[in-house]
Amino acid sequence: MPLPATHPVIPPRKVGVLLINLGTPEAPDVPAVRRYLAEFLSDPRVIEIPRAIWKPILHGLVLRTRPAKSAHAYSQVWTEHGSPLAAITKRQSDALAGRLGDEVLVDWAMRYGAPSIPDRLTAMKDAGCERILLAPLYPQYCAATTATANDLAFATLAGMRWQPALRTLPPYHDSDDYIGALQRDIEAQLEALDFEPQRLLLSYHGMPERTLRKGDPYHCHCRKTARLLGDRLKITVDTSFQSRFGRDKWLEPATDAVLKAYPAQGITRIAIAAPGFSADCLETIEELGIRGKEEFTEAGGRDYARLDCLNDRDQGMQMLEAIVRRELAGWIAPA
Ligand SMILES: C=CC1=C(C)c2cc3[nH]c(cc4nc(cc5[nH]c(cc1n2)c(C)c5CCC(=O)O)C(CCC(=O)O)=C4C)c(C)c3C=C
Ligand SMILES: [Fe+2]
Ligand SMILES: [Fe+2]
């Protein structure tokens, strides 16, 4: 029997995968960075201070001073395709779409800024995705990253009449696919260097130390990744935490302190990698690649190499395909 003319069009059923990363400003200038920081630093999952205390600090101090400093940093890493974080996440999404084939619609979104999670989730549902895997690209679980991305996706569904079924990608900090990809990729990058590093420093994004006491597994996940990777690599591995923000005590040791202390211990040739970042971004290219190198060489270090993240290179995409296919089991045919 034909449908009545008033019946809405129902698109053919699809499975969707939404890759999610943190977010980045739309331009390396002060107004765009201020907009980005205002959204990011207003998230109570990121700054866990009572709003009545934090809001005046954010608007009266942080958003008046930090945007200029950060915009200068962003201008040093900006590319013809825009922010490295957004450009690489888009390439990962395109490459994963090619690997998964027509059965799966792959898209990408940012937790802060554009393209937004509500916008992309709504577009996926409109395109017929009745089942969607949310894939926040953070190997180590953290409430300030994984949970807030999932929160916003769930909040988006709260406004939908016909909700898609959702799955979320679990942390993959100890998965064989991830550790193996890092091992092979790091070994290849070390091999290509024109010097032999005495140490490999694994630098993770820091978090306030109290989040560990409150039960966030992030610290333990970072340590486990480092242990599993260290067991497989021939080089001695150290671990540190970067990007301290504010006055509270953060996870230690701090990356800048480790870099400054190495030369006095006779360690003057090092490589540094950031396995917690699935894509290179401000924190890896500028903080580790530019500032970290200055700190190390000013303290007497001689040779310094920043290794790239897995990004959309073969090892990274093989790993992403494997962990995504595992979570899609029962939704798509096995490869
Ligand atoms: C209290 C503040 C912050 C917490 C907590 C935090 C956790 C956290 N962040 C990442 C990943 C990224 N952070 C990036 C930039 C960035 N982070 C903070 C602050 C906190 N992060 C700020 C203020 C900024 C902006 C830049 C600056 O002003 O310094 C980025 C890079 C974004 C880009 O555009 O390139 C990433 C990625 C993780 C994984 C994490 C907790 C585990
Ligand atoms: Fe951060
Ligand atoms: Fe721990």
From TrEMBL:
<comment type="similarity">
    <text>Belongs to the ferrochelatase family.</text>
</comment>
<keyword id="KW-0456">Lyase</keyword>
<dbReference type="InterPro" id="IPR019772">
    <property type="entry name" value="Ferrochelatase_AS"/>
</dbReference>
<protein>
    <recommendedName>
        <fullName>Ferrochelatase</fullName>
        <ecNumber>4.98.1.1</ecNumber>
    </recommendedName>
</protein>
<feature type="binding site">
    <location>
        <position position="283"/>
    </location>
    <ligand>
        <name>Fe(2+)</name>
    </ligand>
</feature>
<keyword id="KW-0963">Cytoplasm</keyword>
<dbReference type="InterPro" id="IPR033659">
    <property type="entry name" value="Ferrochelatase_N"/>
</dbReference>
<keyword id="KW-0408">Iron</keyword>
<keyword id="KW-0350">Heme biosynthesis</keyword>
<keyword id="KW-0627">Porphyrin biosynthesis</keyword>
<dbReference type="InterPro" id="IPR033644">
    <property type="entry name" value="Ferrochelatase_C"/>
</dbReference>
<comment type="pathway">
    <text>Porphyrin-containing compound metabolism; protoheme biosynthesis; protoheme from protoporphyrin-IX: step 1/1.</text>
</comment>
<keyword id="KW-0479">Metal-binding</keyword>
<feature type="binding site">
    <location>
        <position position="205"/>
    </location>
    <ligand>
        <name>Fe(2+)</name>
    </ligand>
</feature>
<dbReference type="InterPro" id="IPR001015">
    <property type="entry name" value="Ferrochelatase"/>
</dbReference>
<comment type="function">
    <text>Catalyzes the ferrous insertion into protoporphyrin IX.</text>
</comment>
<dbReference type="Pfam" id="PF00762">
    <property type="entry name" value="Ferrochelatase"/>
</dbReference>
